[in-house]
Amino acid sequence: MWPFNRSSEEPASKTAPPSRLSEALAQKDRARPWSQILASTRGHNLRISTRTVITTEEVILQGWPSRGGLIELQGALAPDFEYLKLNHIDPPLRRDPDQEAEEEFCRGLLRLGATWWSSDNRRNFVHRLESQCEDAIKAFQADESLDASRLERRWVRVAWPSEPAGSLCVLECERVICGRRGNEVHRPRQAGSLTLARTMDERCEMLKVFGRRVFESIAEYKGETFLKAWEGGYDGEGHGLVRESFKDPKIYDGHADDALGVFGTSEG
Question: Could you state, in order of their start, the residue ranges of all structural domains in the chain?
């Protein structure tokens, strides 16, 4: 008996008719031959214009400098949002269409310990190395020049306390990627407690437990991180910075789910 023994005389299932929405979109696609190409790269368009990435475990903030590459702050918390003047209740999902404003945001991300990746692909590869994904490990074994650099390994937490004005607290550690080197300072096991800090002042106090250093100003800081990479003329450490061109969604004529800009890449 059905469903275990379906009758051979039962009529074949029919394909559901297309919805009005899909018909309307298809009609627009036929009128705009380039839309098929855009649809095929929609995921890329979404990715390279992203400001805030929210996962099951953390919030990630991204910036897109005109020099090229991707600046990313993993594990962004409320004090970081306040420092960057972002709404942490309703965070922006897309980058700023004004490139000058985007540049200033990128500089702010670096001041919080963000990483400046030479490209989105490079960022993804190093993350896969850290996660010990088989394809990334094999690629590294075939070409050791793909190994993460010292800067790319850095795990940095920064606090900008209210007093003294202009001072900063910095904790510099390294992530384990493709084995230990023997002389790294690794992330503290209790680093998760930093998520409890509600302000930069509280974060600075909590960083004391982990041996953070205090500097009177950013000019005094000389560490090997990306904090001053903006002023230092960072060029991608031999990988070359990949530039992403951006078109303001406000002047883009397309579907609502496509209206995030048209992008292209070029090697810097």
Answer: 43-179+193-267
